[in-house]
Amino acid sequence: MRVDIITIFPEYLSPLELSLVGRARNRGILDVHLHDLRQWTSDAHRTVDDAPYGGGPGMVMRPEPWWAALTEVSGSGPAGGRSPRIIVPTPVGRPFTQAYADGLAGEPWLVFCCGRYEGIDARVIDEWADDEISIGDYVLAGGEVATLVMLEAVTRLLPGVVGNAESVADDSFANGLLEPPVYTRPPVWRDREVPAVLRSGDHAAISRWRREAAVRRTTHRRPDLLTGIDLGRDGGPHGSGPHANPGTDPASTDPAGRVAQ
Ligand code: JAH
After folding, report:
1. Is there a catalytic annotation at residue 108?
2. Could you please report the per-residue DSSP string of 172-241?
3. pLDDT (tens digit, 9 = 90+) per residue, 87-102?
4. Residue nearest to atom 12 of ligand 1 (CA)
5. Measuring from atom 5 of ligand 1, which residue has the nearest CA?
6. Which residue, among 26, 43, 141, 126, has the nearest Cα to 91 in the 3D structure?
7. 62 in active site
8. Quick one: pLDDT band at residue 248, thresholds 50, 70, 90?
9. Cα 14 to the chain's mean position, in Å?
């Protein structure tokens, strides 16, 4: 997969050299191109922003540098080849989800447009953006960190990046439930025991325990995920359909966000 990122802070994307994403790049699975938007300015001060029409606080990103950047970058693929999917991270976008990440992982070429200030002139978005995407209901200083989030979620889905394909298939959200708690050695640590069933060697019992722990955890922490999931007789997801929330208790979340179970 090829990914181009247009930003006024290319150094902000340096974490892409590290860890899982950096390894995918070194192995040729992911081909990342960073671009400084200011290379497509023409004035001496390399200006990328201007005051908003209609007044109000802050500045807006000027359309001309974005137009030049997107024309050049989107035309830089193989001759006669496809055009990229162009994504703009923004707090007013559609929510980023695991399902959306799955879709991006099947694309050959993505372009991320990282806005700053109050955002990019709407005419650029109208003409070029395929998707405006929000990673959550908070405002960042720009789209760079949201791009890092989306690229990490997508890269780990690319074939050959995560060694164990099962660990991708079992992820939280991949099956509609939060994952159950996990444990490693020692079996007793500071007077706390690992649940005996996980050390029993009884794989059917372990599967049942994990499924029940996942349902219990999802019910208490994320009841919103359960609407539309058919939990079935054994408490596992078997498909979708309207389903009442079983015994949800939003009051079990304290003001700090700590949750029982
Ligand atoms: C803020 C440009 N939903 C996450 C997110 C994504 C982008 C931005 N904020 C939040 C943002 C200012 C300027 C983009």
Report:
1. no
2. TTTSSSPPPP---S-SEETTEEPPGGGGS--HHHHHHHHHHHHHHHHHHH-GGGTTTB--TTTT----B-
3. 999 999 999 999 999 9
4. 142
5. 91
6. 141
7. no
8. very low
9. 18
Residue 154 neighbours by CB distance under 10 Å: 23
Catalytic member of 107, 171, 179, 212? 171
User: What is the whole-number distance in angstroms between the Cα of residue 115 and the centre of ligand 1?
Assistant: 7
Strand 2-7 and strand 31-36: the pairing is parallel
Q: How far is the CA of 159 from the centre of ligand 1 (A)?
A: 29
**Mean of pLDDT over the chain:** 91
User: Would you say the CB of residue 140 lies under 6 angstroms from ligand 1?
Assistant: yes
Q: How confident is the model at residue 258 (pLDDT cuts 50, 70, 90)?
A: low
Give me the mean pLDDT over the 215-220 stretch. Answer: 98
Ligand 1 mean position, distance from CA 146 (Å): 7
**117 vs 50: CA distance, rounded Å:** 10
d(CA 98, CA 183): 25
**C-alpha to C-alpha distance for 74 and 86, rounded to whole angstroms:** 9
CA distances from 105 to 140, 155, 199 (A): 24, 7, 36
Query: In the predicted model, is pLDDT for residue 234 greater than 70?
Result: no
Instruction: Please tell me the distance from the alpha carbon of residue 222 to that of residue 117, in angstroms, as a whole number.
Output: 33
What confidence score (pLDDT) does residue 242 get?
39
249 pLDDT above the threshold of 60: no
- Identify which of 49, 66, 90, 121 to mutate to test ligand 1's pocket (most ligand atoms within 8 A of the CB): 90
* 149 in contact with ligand 1, CB cutoff 6 A: no
* Ligand 1 neighbourhood includes 119 CB (under 6 angstroms): yes
Q: Does ligand 1 have an atom closer than 6 angstroms to the CB of 65? A: no
By three-state DSSP, how is residue 87 classified?
A: strand
